[in-house]
Amino acid sequence: MSSESRGPFMRAKSARISSQNSPGQSSVIVHALIFTMQILITGAAGFIGQLLAKELLNDPSHTLVLTDINEPPIPAGVKYPQNARTVTVDLLRGADSVVDKSLDAVYAFHGIMSSGSEADFDLGMRVNVDATRNLLEALRTTCPGVRVIYSSSQAVYGQPLPEVVTDSVIPTPQSSYGAEKVICETLINEYTRRGFINGFTLRFPTISVRPGRPTAAASSFLSGMIREPLNGEECVIPVEDRSFKSWLCSPKTLVYNLILTLSLPSNSLPPHIRQINVPGICVTVQEMMDALVKVGGEEKLALLTEKEDSTLRPILDSWPTRFDNVQAISLGFKRDGSFEEAVRDYRLSLTQ
Ligand SMILES: NC(=O)c1ccc[n+]([C@@H]2O[C@H](COP(=O)([O-])OP(=O)(O)OC[C@H]3O[C@@H](n4cnc5c(N)ncnc54)[C@H](O)[C@@H]3O)[C@@H](O)[C@H]2O)c1
């Protein structure tokens, strides 16, 4: 990524660099301009925050503030762990404490996921809406015009939907989580139109294969049905229909698209329409099982149980299963080649 393409976000810092010399040579000290970006990640103890931090901390041009209500770890094995600091704070009360005027960009990932927001309306509204508004207000006051990359979701859409969702389909969410995301998308549009921030909203597909444990997302099984069997554990699939389709994106491709968004020119979208549907691929439960068999072997299927869940099903059925990503692709976003590749990536990660 060239420094020019990052435009106004890059910050030049003069640094003293002393070179390693061979014996007998005098030491050389040079002054160089190092371009760095100061980036805040909220929800940084979570899955996507950690994934992104890991990638950004392998590049010396990023310094990170990682914040979460739970203490965010600095990802292990990165090249520049010293370029990150962590702040443990509830964004509902402490948004001001993580924002300062040196920030060049913010990834807003904090949140309560879909099942969690459906189970506890007040908690979902407080964290997903009120805390995001608090953050935006703090940014508006302290670092106006800062780039904000907000994590929205395909859950903003609800039925009825056309077979292929285009950028002009109006979101009609059928979950509290989706409704909360639409509220925040509108805030991002409005704060950008007013010049308070320079926002982009990325509507993520379901991310799979996600490492770790099952989550409070209705989509949790879309990772679990691969991850658990590959780890020798059982997983319940809450739909009995193997032709059930989902719109998925691998962690690797998501991180690529998140980093790309740092350098998108502001005027690549109108000031009052900042949403981008992040590219995904449409995969059925049967195709996911097939990928599991190819990567993990036939015997892994014995660890899967199909059992209809009448609470989750209406949420799952309300989500779109196919998008026309022409806008995102024209902006340079990538799409996965196949789901099998995502399964192979996950299996490889178990050995690293
Ligand atoms: N993972 C996916 O498949 C997916 C899909 C679509 C959208 N998204 C969105 O991407 C974002 C990140 O997702 P994730 O999978 O990493 O979620 P996650 O649940 O792993 O992480 C969310 C983090 O937010 C933190 N948090 C909760 N309340 C907070 C508060 N009051 N103050 C500060 N931090 C708080 C949690 O501690 C957690 O670490 C979320 O906003 C989510 O809605 C994720």
From TrEMBL:
Segments for region (Disordered): 1-23
Domain of life: Eukaryota
InterPro entries tied to this protein: DenD, Epimerase_deHydtase, NAD(P)-bd_dom_sf
The NAD-dependent epimerase/dehydratase domain, residue ranges: 39-237
Keywords for this protein: Carbohydrate metabolism, NADP
Name of the molecule in the record: NAD-dependent epimerase/dehydratase domain-containing protein
Organism ancestry: Eukaryota, Fungi, Dikarya, Ascomycota, Pezizomycotina
